[in-house]
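---------- Forwarded message ----------

FYI, see the Enoyl-CoA hydratase record below. Original note from H. follows.
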Amino acid sequence: MNSLPVCQTLLLELHNGVLHITLNRPENRNAMSLQMVAELREVLATVRDDHAVRALVIGGAGGHFCAGGDIKDMANARAQGTEAYRDLNRSFGALLQEVQHAPQVVITVLQGAVLGGGLGLACVSDVALADHQAQFGLPETSLGLLPAQIAPFVVQRIGLTQARRLALTAARFDGTQAKRLGLVHFVEHDPQALAERLEEVLAHVLCCAPGANALTKKLLLASAGEPADALLDQAAQWFSEAVTGAEGVEGTMAFVQKRKPGWAS
């Protein structure tokens, strides 16, 4: 067993071959900072070839999963120009690709806010469990931005027709609707039921041979087709142009100032 990295934004607990990863920025509803992205990628790299780790369970502290990207990181990138935005955006896409291709079974436990990048993480998990009151959504276009790295994975998860509706309206929906869309597999009505469902799923996972699971996952992903590196690179460029353009500036400022942007007034 490789020693796990020391993390400031994640809580890590390894038990019986299952690594529980808790996004731990509850004061920001676990918004995905650059540091959190880097730490998640380091954890994934550490356990990638560790056959003793058979499943990864990703959840969030403080009653929320993840409220999307960290606006503070975007504000810091503003002074550095479009390349900084592009690199910031693309690093999250790399994280999604790495979660998607993790040889372990990846399970997400979704409560509270599951927005933007949080929804993207749900879309690259092998099994998704949700509280019925969890709030899902792609709010990027309401901020004058693009769900740049997330969009291809959302399309792959729920299909183009529904992805178009959700991304182009920034609509919010709950856990029950997420199950209807095929985004999540199980919906529960209280924390105890959610915990019991997780234990049930893990029991099934641990009945399967880890090597066979890893190769089966690789086969399934190859069969379904993968979001290409070139597409995610182009998306990151479009994101950087959007966030520094008039709509992106107005949308992010409106969010920080807790007001409607000009186009929604």
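H. also flagged this: DSSP finds eleven helices and nine strands in the chain.
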